[in-house]
Amino acid sequence: MRQHRRPYDPYAKYRPYILRWDGSVILSVLPSTLITTIISGIVCLLYEYYKINISVPATLTPVFSIVVGLLLTYRTNTAYDRYDEGRRLWSKMIVAIRGILRHILVDLEPKSPEDLQEQKAAINLLIGFAFSTKHYLREEGTECDDLIPFISNINTTIPDFELLALQEAKVIEKERKEKRNLRSKIFKWIKNKIFKHKEQQPNNFNLPLTITLYLTSYVEEQFAKKNISNSTAKIFHLNLNALIDSLSGFERILRTPIPLAYAIHLSQTVWVYCIGLPFQLVSMIHYVTIPLVLIVSFILFGIETIGEEIENPFGYDDNDLDLDDLCNVIKIEFETITKYSRPKIEKWLYDQTHQPSYDDIIMDSEPSGISTFDSTSEHGDEEHIEEHIDMR
Predict the structure, then answer these.
(1) What's the 3-state SS for the chain?
(2) Is pLDDT above 80 for 190?
(3) Does the pLDDT of residue 156 top 50, yes or no?
(4) Mean local confidence (pLDDT), 97-116
(5) Domain limits of the chain?
(6) 94, 198, 211, 289: which has the fewest C-beta neighbours closer than 10 Å?
């Protein structure tokens, strides 16, 4: 697991992008770029030194350029759309989590220690939803140090959850025994190779969905106790539906990548173009072909690699969404808000130090265009109406 990277500060001054190394794809495209550059050097050497005519007509370059450009454009646009959708879904999830927290703190007043304990457990589950979603999208399981404190009160009988740790322990112990037993290894090899048998591995349990069940149970319990109204319960359920909708959107991005055939064909097309480029340029620009192929290869392979990185925005790449920082923001935010009780109107609205005097505003300001009737005048209404008629 990669270390947590420094969060991006939009107000900090950074080096110019042309001089930045971190966050770029230079290291990823360097091997491919060097290979095509070496090939171009060999082509130039054969053509210039050994006088072997291996050039091809340069008219093919515009045709190939259009094809490669269209493929790369589709690749990057599709990948960025997935990245942008993941960012939007995460923002939607945060809105729903904050909405649930707000109604828990404002609409639910703890009347007993049990109510306070239930409230704290529900808030922990909200934080746990964000952290569990992060680990679920990264397929890291449920035994994570930053997640366990928020879901420790869950004790469910749903299959594959309560016994998940035991299942993983059994799998690990079984693998250890098989390593020590040569006959077991041979038997397993025979089953996999001859009978095409594969053992079923434990699934990546959908813990976020389970947390929504617990939160729904909490809302229904509060509604049954008449601690919340029907309209408030509907708002809770709408926010819970938004959490499930966001989770389904995350799964759509994670489970439905760009078709493999398209990715393979694009990579092969870029390689064919970069390898064939020196054969088309050597007769025109000679040794200048080498640096030109280097630049072109770096650009094309870089665009392809960027598309591969942002296609799944939930990993640990520098260009992925910083889910660790986003989850920590929720955690710190919730810890700060829950330190204080909900604001009561009598403590801030009717405090003279916090409320400006309306009479002072009327006395110090110019007369407004809004007409008011003087109730102390006996003929206030009639005079005002007559004035209005005369003005017309």
Answers:
(1) CCCCCCCCCCCCCCCCHHHCCCCCCHHHHHHHHHHHHHHHHHHHHHHHCCCCCCCCCCCHHHHHHHHHHHHHHHHHHHHHHHHHHHHHHHHHHHHHHHHHHHHHHHHCCCCCHHHHHHHHHHHHHHHHHHHHHHHHHCCCCCCCCCCHHHHCCCCCCCCCCCCHHHHHHHHHHHHHHHHHCHHHHHHHHHHHHCCCCCCCCCCCCCHHHHHHHHHHHHHHHHHHCCCCCHHHHHHHHHHHHHHHHHHHHHHHHHHCCCCHHHHHHHHHHHHHHHHHHHHHHHHHHHHHHHHHHHHHHHHHHHHHHHHHHHHCCCCCCCCCCCHHHHHHHHHHHHHHHCCCCCCCHHHHCCCCCCCCCHHHHHHHCCCCCCCCCCCCCCCHHHHHHHHHHHHC
(2) no
(3) no
(4) 92
(5) 17-160+203-348, 162-200, 358-391
(6) 198
